[in-house]
Each structure stands twice: as structure tokens, then as C-alpha cells.
Fold this sequence. Notes:
By secondary structure, this protein is an alpha+beta fold. Helices cover 23% and strands 24% of the residues. The longest helix has 11 residues.
Amino acid sequence: MGTLLSVNVGRPEPTVHSDPGVTAIGKKPVEGAVQVTAPSERKGVSGLVGDAICDVRHHGGVDQAVYAYAREELDGWAEELGRALPNGVFGENLTTEGLDVSGALIGERWRIGGTLLLEVSATRIPCRTFAGWMEQERWVRTFTDRARPGAYLRVLTPGEIRGGDEITVVHRPDHGVSSADVFRALHSRAPEVLPRMLDLPALAEGHRESAAKRLGV
């Protein structure tokens, strides 16, 4: 069991590091309850009501409805980078405590609050918007080397959540493939995981297609 430390949403801000010219990566904690819904589009819509998606080609939608990151890993990054990293700074919607988010298995299901049910569906692919936002030299390479990606989740049952809610892992599949494993596989660090990705029904379609392309099948 873990704790939802904060629910974070973003508003569009100008940037030179994204093709749309705006980004909502700088998310901030919200006071009170936030409604989480299941987006009908594959891209371009957040699962959190009030959270903006600016790069509609690469973010949001069914398989990336909600992004979670662990406070413990943010603290590790803060120590490594020598700077404060507030909740939401990695663009995460959910900042958690007590859960190994990067180690969450594809298809793992979380219950948050009374009714919200989420399913781990994808890993993060760091981009130039993330690098520009962090203003850290060689950030994409560093993030890739550490392989602490957090996890994307799809919405199975909508619900209302708020900071302080409990997070309960209600289902954990037995295949052993985590968000971090998929991350390493897609960055050519764990090629042995690629064939296993083809047999994960809960894995985001785009990740499964990438695995198939790399395997030539």
C-alpha cells in the first residue's frame, strides 16, 4: 500500500523546446478533489480534469491518461542534481510515496480513493521538452542511463482523488515485466525483454509496435 502525496495538473506555458510552442509539463499540486476520467482519444487528452495536454501527438489519451512518479525517486534525483524538486516537476500527475513506481508491472492495477482504478500501461520516453524544462546538461542521456522512468496508467474505472488518498495494488500479474524493463528495452539496454513485450496485452499499443519493429516481426 502506498500514499498519494499530491495530485498535479499543468497549464500551458510558452516554450521553445516543443513544436507547439507551449507546454504543460510544469505541473503543480491541486488542493481538494480532482476528477479522473477515461479519455476516448488515444492522444491529446489527459485523464485528469483540468490538466492540459499541449503536444497532442505524443501525450495523453487512453494509454497515457495518467503519469505517476515516486517521491522517493524524486528525492534521489534531488540529491544527485543538487536542487530542490517539488511534486509535479517531472510532469507527473500523481506523486506517490511507498510504491516502486518504476518497478510497477505492466498490467498492475491500483485502486486510489474510493472508486478510481488505474492500470499500468506504458513507460516514459524522455523528450527535448523534458530536457528543456529541466535545464540540465545531457538530461535525456542521464535520465535514460538511470532508468527510473515512473509509469503511465490507463483509467479502468473513473473516480475522484485527492492528496492523502491511499493507493492499493489490487492486482499484480506474474510476467515480471516492469515499466523500467520496458524503458530499458526501448532504449536498447535490455533486448531480451522485447519478445516478452509482444505477449503483454496491457502494454500500450505503441510500445508493442516498437518492440515488433525492432524484432522484425
